[in-house]
Structures are given as structure tokens and as C-alpha cells.
Amino acid sequence: MAANIISGTEVAKAIREELKVEVAELTEKHGIVPGLVTILVGEDPASQSYVAAKNKSAHALGIHSEQVTLDVDTPEADLLALVEKYNNDPKINGILVQLPLPKHINEANVLYAINPDKDVDGFHPVNVGKMVLGEQCFLPCTPHGILELLVRSGVETSGAEVVVVGRSNIVGKPIANLMLQKREAGNATVTLCHTRTKDMAAHCRRADILIAAVGVPKMITADMVKDGVAVIDVGVNRIGMSSTGKAILAGDVDFEGVKEKASCITPVPGGVGPMTITMLMKNTVQAAKMAANLI
């Protein structure tokens, strides 16, 4: 029996409707308009597309949104000065510096310069540390989105065997940590696989929930999973171009093969992707409420 398809597009839409109501209430009852600034260095087409989507989402929810685009050769000191300006701007609750940055700019220096209370990407060491300790903080957007997909799809995580393939700081490590915590969409037994894992297929076949975030197209095949597994595919890999010039995308999971064994699975595109920007909006609203001492 083919798997139930978990639509990140539909789940993200539902969360955005909730956020729209929350933003309206903040504005009407407290005079608060959450504010987000996105900073882009250079003209990378993919980054431009991501930033445009973030600003469009913000405007649709009633969030004040600003975008700053800097020349690709902007000195690191100028970027740091801009970050500091927005650290001190009361209209701005969230600061997002679009990655990747040009090679002459130290990414860590920039991310660490953001006020942790405005770090809506959840990348600052203060927020990473709070996440590991299970304290209130901004959760990194993609892992946060994965948790929401699991909860809203009714996937039981408590006591489940979870296998995460990929150990990046953006997805693999944080989602592994979150799922072992005593929390909703947590209490799981977690195995984190990576490039040096021996017999990865054996680990994957134990999974009740498999999260693939490794960046290799169709790496997880049907023979690597057991019947009834819940699959979250984070990968977005370009594998070709259509006759109309549109990119053909594939996840890290062989969707056609694995869906015949899985109980549920996210597609690519339309799975985890739409959740990431939505959780950025959720973090921005949270930041505005924190600044006003409402939480």
C-alpha cells in the first residue's frame, strides 16, 4: 500500500493562517507589528529567490519586512556595522543574513554578531546552547518545521527509533537533539548517521522514523527501509532541466520506490521546503512577543 503523502505546503498554509491571526491580535491589542530584516550580500540567484519568498511571506502575514542588498565585495566590517544597526532598531525583531556569504566574509563572525534575541534563524551559539538544554529559544527553522510536520501528521515519536542521515549544523545535529528531548515530537531513541557510518543501510532499516538530510539525490532506496516507516526527506537536489528550462528536483530519498513501503512520506518539492520559511515567520512573531514581555 502506497504511503500517505505529507504535504508541507498544506501544513505550512495552516500555520500561516494561525500566524496571521496572531499578528493581527498583536497589532490590534498591543500596537505591536513584528519586524524582520533580510540582508543579502551579492546577487546569487538562489539567494535572491529565497529572500524574495521570505519577504513575500512576511508581508502576507502583516509582518513589517525590510530587505537590504549589498554589493558582493562589501567589506565584512560594513556588514557587521549593518547588523549592529538593526540590533539597536526597535522596529526590527528578527535579523536574517542570507547564507552563503562571499568567501572574504567570515560567516561565524556575522552570525555571532546578531543579537541572540533577534536571531530568528536559530544559529547563534546562545540559541544553540539553549536548544540543547531544552530551554525556550528560537529553534532552527528546518528542524522546527520537521517537528511540526510530524506532530500535525499524527506520527508518534515517543519511544520511536529515529534515524537521521546527515550531521549538518543546520538540520542533522539539531533535529537529532530535539527528537531525543522530553518534549512534544520528542522522547525518541535517535541514531545519527554520516559519511563514516558503517553499514548505513542496517541502521536505516531499524528506523520507525527516517529523516534524510544529506544532499545526495535518491540515496535512500527501498531496500534500506522497513515497511511502515515514516520518512521526512529534507534534500533538495537539482538533477536536470526540463524541456521548458525548469529545474528537475529530487530528494535524498528515492520517492517512487520508498513510498510503496512507507506509512507516510514527504515529497520533494512540496514537503519540508515550505515549512522552513513558515517557521522563520513563527520565530519572528515569537521575537516580537519576547521583546514586549508577552512571553
UniProtKB/TrEMBL annotation:
SUPFAM superfamilies: Aminoacid dehydrogenase-like, N-terminal domain, NAD(P)-binding Rossmann-fold domains. CDD domains: NAD_bind_m-THF_DH_Cyclohyd. Its EC number is 1.5.1.5, 3.5.4.9. InterPro entries: Aminoacid_DH-like_N_sf, NAD(P)-bd_dom_sf, THF_DH/CycHdrlase, THF_DH/CycHdrlase_cat_dom, THF_DH/CycHdrlase_CS, THF_DH/CycHdrlase_NAD-bd_dom. GO terms for biological process: L-histidine biosynthetic process; methionine biosynthetic process; purine nucleotide biosynthetic process; tetrahydrofolate interconversion. Homodimer. This is Bifunctional protein FolD. It comes from Candidatus Desulfatifera sulfidica.
